[in-house]
Amino acid sequence: MDELPPRLPGAPSVDLIQLTAPNPGPMTLEGTNTYVIRDGDQAWVVDPGPRDPEHLADVLLAMPRPGRPMGVLVTHHHADHAAGAATLARQLAARSGCEVPLWAADPALVHGARPVPSELTSDHGTVGHVVHLPGHTGDSIGVLLEGGRMLTGDTLLGGSSTVVVPDDGGVLAEYLQSLAILRAMALDGRIGSLHPGHGPQSSSPLDALTVIDEAIAHREERLEQVRRARTAGILTMDRLLRAVYGPDLPPEKEKAARWNIRAALDHLSPRT
């Protein structure tokens, strides 16, 4: 297991502002959660969301002014999180007159990005630690802020399970490992609340641990369902979909279900 980031002591002095983009849907729930982190006149944006002019304008309004935009960070490359990132970075640079970096775990997947730093730092010290959480995608990360506030991207969602996307480097074994890392951080007091890429936050340590445990249990249950179906001789994707998800799977969720089954099959029969 990777070394866990240290505790960030004391009550939060850094403000965390959530804005939800107007892109609701089966995969995005109420919409993408954009986060503005403010430490005095310094600020960062995590997951600007889609390239929606009104949403990006709301993000600009949430930035301190006058102030210093310190950077734009995306938790992974999916368009519902990253499509507006380069535009926002340019807007912040134009308004402030200084360079505003755009960061991603895999810069090749996000136009204009550079490698993500290990920490977010202000004039007052460390504001947050970047935590690598591959699984949903190969480039998924989270940010642990002062006071134990964990921005999870799509590794955890509020009120729904996430999807492991093999086409984007998602690997079920890595996802389970990322959940184990989050669980260890919650158990030893590093995580006090969860702030997901979609859906509502979990605002207490107990709620956070419950959400993590439920995500682990749900994934293990799905994996066992696929294992049993395959043992019973159900091998085609269409039949596996019916066996695992039932006959009433909504059409708009079928693509995500197929991804999850592919990830489970890859996990059960790893390629050599």
Put the structure in a nutshell.
The protein has seven helices and eleven strands. It is α/β, with parallel strands linked by helices. The chain has a six-stranded mixed sheet with strand order 1-2-3-4-5-6, covered by helices on one side. A five-stranded mixed sheet has the order 7-8-9-10-11.
Rg calc: 19 Å
Which class do the helix and strand fractions yield? alpha/beta
Q: What's the pLDDT, averaged over the residues?
A: 94
Residue share in β-strands: 15-25%
Q: What is the 3D form?
A: globular
Show unreliable segments.
none
State the share of residues found in helices, binned by percent. 25-40%
Mind summarizing the main beta sheet?
6 strands, mixed
Query: Total strand count, please?
Result: 11
Oligomeric grouping of the chains: single chain
With strands numbered from the N-terminus, the spatial order across the biggest sheet is 1-2-3-4-5-6
Description:
By secondary structure, the chain is of the alpha/beta class. It is built from seven helices and eleven strands. The chain has helices at residues 53-62, 79-82, 85-96, 172-187, 205-231, 237-245, 254-268; strands spanning 15-20, 33-39, 42-46, 68-73, 102-104, 114-115, 119-122, 125-132, 141-145, 149-153, 193-196. The strands form two sheets. Strands 1-2-3-4-5-6 form a six-stranded mixed β-sheet, covered by helices on one side. The model has no long low-confidence stretch (mean pLDDT 94).
What's the structural blueprint in terms of helices and strands?
Blueprint: E1 15-20, E2 33-39, E3 42-46, H1 53-62, E4 68-73, H2 79-82, H3 85-96, E5 102-104, E6 114-115, E7 119-122, E8 125-132, E9 141-145, E10 149-153, H4 172-187, E11 193-196, H5 205-231, H6 237-245, H7 254-268
